[in-house]
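Hi V.,

Quick status before I head out on leave. The structure for the redesign project is tokenized and pasted below; the design run finished overnight.
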């Protein structure tokens, strides 16, 4: 999930941060024409499939039926071997050895198309491809063969679970995805105890990463990007982050430890996370905050999740408008996870704003439903992936886009 993401990682060379503004996402020139079925108006080279998947998944989650041509566009992005690249300008041209397959895009597409239904052939081939590129440690990197990272492994777990697989039984050399995540969980002790790292550094050391932690919590719980309000894995597993950090001997305990770390980090800065890009001025990380909300809600940590949603309601509008469809999707999924009405999110209609970035949906969906009433929001009394940069030719990450995400584009090794 981030891609639940400190800096979303979307690399073909390897989503920590999850996405905001210094080096902006490249905008299309007047001569460029992107598919009319695609959500967003910026260059889709590094995130076309990712942002399309999130947009469709977010709409479906709250009862909106997306435009048929947008769903069809996503399905047609698949390569013959079942994989998805970040973006294929001409899907009629077969994928070849130069096509940069992307585990994050593939997993996001699986989650979206499974939720929408009617694409079992596409999702089945995609899951088969994901299994075929599993690393020996049980995890996945952004690109096939790349070192396993928390964000990629977690979003693949979400895809496997969505497709009806049992992630713990998907093994390579006797190692499951959960084995890979446990190796990326920091031990208890110190301010960073219980967090997840994105990857070990060159010395093999683990450094806490909020984006990776949000992703890791969902992954360790075997959950995807969508968390239904009131349906918590924490209650089922018996683990709660409030119990404090304990040795992460099981995926459930690692998830509880990660949630405790996130709750502490959110409370420290008035309900939101801060970006931690080297050399940049500290600034709120909206995308990772949204991903953290989903992660906490999945474990039943509703008090802090709701406070952070209130903060996002008050402060995320400009970020979302600048960042585009993936950002609106992240906010919708965070709102859904906490039972907040996405059509009245700080006075804004997130569904309408998301819809304005692409084709009009077939149906408008429900205005209420599983969301809490405005009175309930007031009773809480609390306030609720863009900077993009390139690393080499294939690396893009966004501050504030988050794991979910990850704007999940290129592996962040910064």
């Amino acid at each position: 999930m981030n891609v639940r993401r400190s800096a979303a990682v979307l690399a073909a060379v390897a989503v920590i941060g999850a996405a905001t503004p210094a080096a902006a996402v490249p905008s299309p020139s007047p001569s460029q024409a992107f598919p009319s079925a695609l959500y967003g108006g910026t260059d889709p080279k590094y995130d076309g499939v990712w942002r399309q998947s999130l947009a469709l998944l977010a709409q479906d989650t709250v009862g909106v039926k997306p435009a048929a041509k947008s769903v069809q566009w996503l399905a047609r992005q698949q390569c013959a071997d079942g994989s998805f690249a970040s973006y294929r300008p001409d899907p009629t041209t077969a994928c070849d050895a130069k096509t940069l397959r992307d585990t994050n895009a593939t997993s996001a597409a699986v989650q979206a198309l499974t939720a929408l239904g009617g694409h079992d052939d596409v999702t089945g081939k995609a899951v088969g491809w994901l299994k075929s590129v599993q690393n020996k440690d049980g995890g996945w990197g952004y690109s096939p063969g790349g070192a396993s990272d928390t964000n990629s492994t977690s979003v693949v777990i979400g895809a496997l679970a969505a497709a009806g697989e049992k992630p713990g039984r998907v093994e390579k050399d006797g190692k499951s995805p959960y084995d890979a995540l446990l190796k990326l969980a920091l031990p208890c002790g110190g301010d960073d105890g219980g967090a997840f790292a994105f990857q070990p550094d060159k010395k093999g050391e683990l450094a806490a990463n909020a984006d990776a932690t949000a992703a890791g919590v969902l992954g360790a719980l075997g959950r995807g990007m969508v968390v239904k309000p009131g349906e918590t894995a924490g209650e089922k597993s018996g683990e709660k982050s409030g119990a404090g950090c304990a040795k992460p001997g099981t995926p459930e305990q690692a998830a509880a430890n990660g949630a405790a770390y996130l709750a502490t980090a959110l409370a420290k800065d008035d309900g939101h996370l801060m970006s931690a890009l080297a050399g940049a001025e500290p600034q709120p990380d909206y995308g990772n905050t949204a991903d953290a909300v989903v992660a906490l809600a999945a474990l039943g940590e509703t008090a802090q999740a709701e406070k952070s949603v209130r903060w996002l309601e008050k402060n995320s509008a400009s970020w979302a408008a600048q960042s585009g469809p993936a950002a609106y999707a992240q906010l919708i999924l965070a709102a859904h996870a906490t039972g907040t009405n996405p059509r009245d999110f700080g006075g804004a209609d997130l569904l309408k704003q998301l819809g304005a970035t692409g084709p009009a949906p077939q149906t408008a969906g429900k205005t209420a439903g599983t969301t809490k009433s405005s009175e309930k929001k007031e009773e809480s009394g609390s306030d609720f992936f863009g900077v993009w940069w390139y690393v080499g030719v294939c690396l893009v990450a966004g501050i504030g886009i988050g794991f979910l995400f990850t704007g999940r584009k290129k592996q962040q090794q910064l």
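Above is the designed sequence. The first helix runs from residue 48 to 61.

G. will cover questions while I'm gone.

Best,
W.
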